[in-house]
Q: What sequence folds into this?
């Protein structure tokens, strides 16, 4: 594991970027995917497995159903859902924000039973006539396209006329099946959900006046068992040589977005988010300014891409930029959390970290907390300086490192000791973009 240090001194915020214990490549990569990408994923799945040696297990459903499953605690490594749902999953801390990758978009189309006469739907008038002449229409009640379909029916003035002969189904697979079985004449759903279905033929896209597009994004779960495998999958899906597979299945691949030259080996940051001191003029001098945290000190990553955050203690010289990292899961102790919002506490400034109240929080209730259950990142209780003070212990590939606010600490193995506020020692530390490994 490589440690890229963005510190001015060793007051620490632990910010782990998609870090988990290395998973065996015999472990299946768990993927939750919307029906809109079913065809392309089924085509690419064997290619990915051959290229990486990893096995995948994909479960398809509507984005609505997948959201309910995630809310219910279903485990996954990668989610591929509509971009709107991806926004929600990131907000709910189910997806690592910095892992988001825009994949493709698809329009809405009309399908009929194979061999049936294809109506003229090129114009709004033709679309209206085809709908009114149909024996039955079907679409998914929980599909991403429903809102756009019903908007079209309302704009055409035939919503009420179509209700008696509209079959609402759970998901596009069932709705397209209704047409293949002869229960309905037409299905309206995403083009990418029509093309792969046997027994169904695509008539064409909706008229331009009614066309809307649904975009799909992929992201890594915050509780991913195999984040390395998840990252390779996202890279694979964004590779130029798979674009043709997307297009052949009715999806327009997104333009590739550079990752800002972020190092692929990055595992952990130690950031100083505090204030050095207050000058005699009353001016607070930052070690690392908010602008540096947000733009330049993170080698291409943004605060929104941080997965976990922890502080040694809550004094004002260690918390000044914490609001920028409130999107991460906060690792803290109950005593320190109470201390941070205690009435009359002049050693803290809640304005620096108030957003943490709304962060996903993991309260540490033991002396030593092994963050990833592999012994590499350990947070150890060291109360005294503050009620819930804690020490960070890192065991890197070539170095053992301990960060402490104490003036001394005993270690059981050789390594490097960082003592907060030991400024001569700080001057000897590597600074970003240099790093420890």
A:
């Amino acid at each position: 594991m490589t440690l890229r240090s963005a510190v001015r001194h060793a007051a620490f915020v632990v910010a782990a970027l998609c870090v988990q214990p290395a998973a065996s490549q015999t472990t299946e990569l768990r993927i939750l995917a919307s029906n809109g990408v079913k065809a392309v994923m089924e085509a690419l799945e064997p290619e990915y497995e051959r290229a990486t040696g990893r096995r995948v297990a994909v479960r398809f459903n509507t984005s609505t159903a997948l959201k309910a499953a995630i809310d219910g605690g279903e485990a996954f490594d990668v989610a591929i859902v509509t971009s709107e749902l991806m926004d929600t999953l990131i907000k709910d801390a189910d997806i690592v924000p910095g892992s988001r990758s825009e994949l493709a978009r698809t329009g809405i189309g009309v399908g009929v039973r194979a061999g049936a006469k294809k109506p003229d739907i090129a114009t709004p008038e033709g679309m209206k006539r085809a709908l009114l002449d149909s024996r039955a229409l079907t679409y998914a009640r929980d599909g991403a396209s429903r809102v756009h379909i019903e908007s079209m029916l309302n704009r055409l003035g035939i919503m009420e006329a179509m209700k008696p002969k509209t079959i609402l189904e759970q998901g596009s697979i069932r709705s397209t099946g209704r047409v293949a079985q002869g229960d309905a004449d037409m299905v309206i759903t995403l083009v990418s959900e029509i093309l792969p279905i046997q027994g169904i033929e695509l008539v064409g896209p909706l008229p331009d006046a009614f066309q809307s597009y649904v975009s799909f994004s992929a992201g890594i779960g915050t509780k991913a068992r195999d984040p390395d495998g998840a990252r390779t999958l996202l890279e694979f899906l964004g590779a130029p040589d798979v674009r043709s597979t997307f297009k052949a299945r009715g999806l327009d691949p997104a333009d590739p977005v550079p990752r800002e030259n972020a190092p692929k080996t990055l595992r952990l940051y130690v950031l100083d988010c505090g204030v050095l001191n207050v000058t005699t003029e009353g001016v607070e001098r930052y070690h690392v300014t908010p602008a540096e945290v947000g733009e330049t000190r993170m080698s291409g990553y943004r605060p929104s891409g941080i997965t976990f955050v922890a502080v040694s203690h809550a004094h004002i010289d260690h918390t000044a930029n914490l609001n920028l990292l409130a999107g991460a899961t906060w690792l803290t102790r109950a005593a320190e959390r109470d201390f941070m919002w205690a009435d009359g506490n002049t050693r803290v400034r809640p304005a620096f970290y108030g957003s943490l109240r709304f962060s996903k929080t993991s309260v540490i209730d033991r002396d030593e907390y092994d963050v990833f259950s592999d012994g590499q990142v350990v947070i150890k209780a060291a109360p005294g300086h503050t009620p819930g003070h804690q020490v960070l212990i890192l065991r890197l590939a070539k170095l053992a490192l301990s960060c402490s606010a104490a003036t001394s600490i005993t270690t059981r193995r050789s390594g490097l000791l960082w003592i907060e506020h030991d400024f001569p020692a700080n001057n000897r530390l590597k600074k970003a973009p240099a790093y420890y490994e």
